[in-house]
Each structure stands twice: as structure tokens, then as C-alpha cells.
Write a structure and sequence with these properties.
Shape: elongated
Largest sheet: 3 strands, antiparallel
Helix content: 40-55%
Bound molecules: zinc ion
Distance between the termini: 57 Å
Length: about 150
């Protein structure tokens, strides 16, 4: 561990403690400048890589997903915290899968079903883009579907 004061690599752990959430905190002293500092170590859940339709992979990007949902919700009575909740649930679901890779379609499907419960107009807007509804017939079918359910 590098000293944040003088960047020396020569540091020594003088105390280790565990917190309730499973994190480990270490008090350290720098052997070069004798400053003391702490480090905190905690396990981070990672989301799987997303495999796109063309076979390329990209990292799950929370901000990008939120942006897409926000655009679909423009001028609709959907609050920022509701959008945040959908994004958080999608991220948590991805992390809980414990997989290295999933189809990016999985994320789109979750966003679509989250919006479906929240606001039908936002849902249709999102579905047009992400489900690739590119003609009026398939958009109408999707809307008919909403009336049926
Ligand atoms: Zn130092």
C-alpha cells in the first residue's frame, strides 16, 4: 500500500478491525515519513458483461441505462427516484445472477417491464427504441397488448 503523503511503498499495518458490513479497516504507518493513514477493504459485487446483438461486449453502465429511461420518461409523471429505483433493481438483479456474461437484451427487458408498471407512455417510448419496434403494426400490437392486460 502506497503512503498518500509521500507515496512510499514502505508502510506497516498497526491495527486491523472489521466492521458490521464485512469490511476490513487497517490503520497503517508510513515507514518513510511516519504519517498514519487508514485503508478500507470491502468486497464489491460486479455486474456481468453485456453481450450485444452484434456479439460485442460492453460493461453494464448504470448512467447510460438511467439516461435511456429518463428520455423515455420525459414530461411524464415519473419521478427521478422512481427511475433510480428501476435502475438500482436492474443492477442488483444483474449482480445477483453471478454470471460473467449475459445478453444485453436482459437489461432492456427488465427496463421495459419496470416501465410497464410505472407509466404506459414511457413504456411504449422505451419499447419502440429497445425492442426495435420499427413499424406501426408492431407498435400497435404492443399497445393492444397493454389494453388487454
Ligand atoms: Zn509516507
Amino acid at each position: 500500500m502506497q503512503c498518500p503523503y509521500c507515496t512510499s511503498d514502505q508502510t506497516r499495518v498497526i491495527d486491523t478491525s472489521h466492521d458490521a458490513r464485512g469490511g476490513v479497516r487497517r490503520r497503517r504507518v508510513c515507514l518513510a515519513c511516519e504519517q498514519r493513514f487508514s485503508t478500507y477493504e470491502r468486497a464489491i459485487l460486479t455486474a456481468p458483461m453485456l453481450v450485444k446483438r452484434d456479439g460485442t461486449r460492453e460493461e453494464f453502465d448504470r448512467e447510460k441505462l438511467a439516461r435511456g429511461i429518463r428520455i423515455a420518461c420525459a414530461k411524464r409523471p415519473v419521478s427521478a427516484s422512481e427511475i433510480d429505483r428501476i435502475v438500482g433493481e436492474i443492477e442488483a438483479t444483474l449482480q445477483a445472477m453471478g454470471k460473467a456474461e449475459v445478453s444485453s437484451r436482459v437489461v432492456g427487458d427488465m427496463a421495459v417491464s419496470g416501465l410497464k408498471e410505472l407509466d404506459h407512455i414511457a413504456y411504449i417510448r422505451y419499447a419502440i427504441v429497445y425492442l426495435g419496434l420499427d413499424d406501426l403494426r408492431s407498435i400497435r400490437d404492443e399497445i393492444d397488448h397493454l389494453f388487454d392486460t
